[in-house]
Amino acid sequence: MSNHPPRATKAKPASDPVLAGFRKSIDNIDAALIHMLAERFRITQAVGEYKAKTALPPADPEREERQIARLRKLSVEADLDPEFSEKFLRFIIDEVIRHHERARS
C-alpha cells in the first residue's frame, strides 16, 4: 500500500477546451497587434521620408515625452503596467528613429 495520495487526473493542455479558447483569443489578439504595428510603421515610414525631404530631425524628444506620458496615463486607466507600456513604446520609438535616420541618409 502506498503512502502517497492519489493523483488528480489532469487534462493535457492541447485537449483542454477552456485553455484552447483562451489561446485562440490570444492568437487573434497577437495577429491584430502585428497588423496594427505594420500599419503604424507604414505611417512612420512616410513621416521619415517627409522629415528627410524637409530637413527635419529624425527624433522629436518633446513629442516622445508627451506620447510616453499620454500612454502611461492610458495604461493606468486600462489597468496595464505603465512601466511595461513605456518600455514597449520606447522600443517602438527607437525603431522608428532608426528608420528615420536611414531615410535621411
UniProtKB/TrEMBL annotation:
Residues 13-104 form the Chorismate mutase domain. One of its GO terms (molecular function) is chorismate mutase activity. Keywords: Isomerase. It comes from Altererythrobacter litoralis. It is an enzyme of class 5 (isomerase). It comes from the Bacteria. InterPro entries: Chorismate_II_sf, Chorismate_mutase-related, CM_bact, CM_dom_sf, CM_II_prokaryot. It holds the Pfam family CM_2. This is chorismate mutase. The lineage of its organism: Bacteria, Pseudomonadati, Pseudomonadota, Alphaproteobacteria, Sphingomonadales. Its EC number is 5.4.99.5.
